[in-house]
Amino acid sequence: MRATLYLTRNGLLEPLGQSQVLAYLRGLSREYRITLITYEKNEDRADEARMASARAECEALGIRWLPQKFRPQPKVIAPALSMLRMAWLVRREVRRRGVRLIHARSYIPAAVALVVGRMTGVPFIFDMRALWPEELITAGRVRRGSLLHRAIVAAERACLRRAAAVVSLTHAAAEYLNRLYPKEMAGRTVVVIPTCADLDRYVPPLGKPGTRVVGCLGTVLSGWFRMDWLASFLAVAARRDPGVLFEITTRDDPEQVRALVAADPAVWSRLDVAPCPADRVQEVLQGQFVSVMFYAGGEVSELGRSPTRMAEILGCGMPVVANDGVGDVAAIIREHRVGVLAEGPAPHQMEAAWEALEALLADPDLSARCRRTAERIFSLSAGTRAYGRIYAGLINGDGPCAD
């Protein structure tokens, strides 16, 4: 079997590590001998049972898993030191294992793969995931034009130019990159693979839930989630439906989340904020009738966003309430009629979104249509096959292909 290396700064025990890393590698490991390098947070490393379970699954799949310790602090120094350690580790694995291809998930791994690739001649996939420089600006973590911002943009440009293949989550981001970097992108095909979901797990419930529950899934304290929109929508829902309950399923600090979204007493008394193990997320979704996700739409950063939660929600046969300007989200909602787009955070705008949602829920084909849309766009098996074609094309010398 041909040896490949998958490099990510996410942890395998994180929800994204399970749904967007291991989920694809389960299929790819049938054809490739994979070494997986991840960066695990302290709280996950401390969970010995889950670490052992993840290690056992990797061994069963023939995946050589090398979990590293994630160090977030000091802010700039820690990632820099991490890159040096990562580069040494990747170079060692390339030489020892005869690695033919490096799959780099996001920017720092791609920069490392670029450096190691120049030293060893091993090609790499720049799996962008999102437009990270713009995400950092939107979240207020980096100032546009600063030394750090210029360095990240330079790395982005170099990775786009040198990568053997580029993968984008959205068509909107691919179009943006072609406009921003016409020279680097000339003649280059960007393969679009959205965040996919295991649709064997994320399925509609057998029966309708007895209680109407409005859900919100995933991190909301990231800096690029619109908490004011979420608070406004929940307040309108509480007024319009006295029996509705609210669930925010997140690993974020619950008290901080409550303080930001539950100023309305009617929301506070009916709101549950709690984490959920990755293997039980589908059970939470199956108990809801709609899920809400509001990102910083309209920002350049959001062109590259393909929310994992959207794939999982639609797979469960449930519509979404979202906003425009977020990757391909609005286009999917409009084309397939699988949700509602809120126009703004004002009460009258959220009232309009609630009324549109109630009208949509009256459509008897809604759940089946949500499921069909998930199968068409977000199928994990289709995404895995697309990655497999890229792997085969690069290792065989034919170039990337996702068709």
UniProtKB/TrEMBL annotation:
* GO MF annotations, alphabetized: glycosyltransferase activity
Q: What is this protein called?
A: Glycosyltransferase
Write the record's keywords in alphabetical order, separated by commas. Answer: Glycosyltransferase, Transferase
Output the Pfam families linked to this UniProt entry: Glyco_trans_4_4 (PF13579)
Q: What is its EC number?
A: 2.4.-.-
What is the organism lineage in this UniProt record? Bacteria, Pseudomonadati, Pseudomonadota, Alphaproteobacteria, Hyphomicrobiales
Highest taxon in the source lineage? Bacteria
Alphabetized Gene3D superfamilies for the sequence: Glycogen Phosphorylase B
Does the entry feature the keyword Transferase, yes or no? yes
Query: Which residues are in the Glycosyltransferase subfamily 4-like N-terminal domain?
Result: 21-191
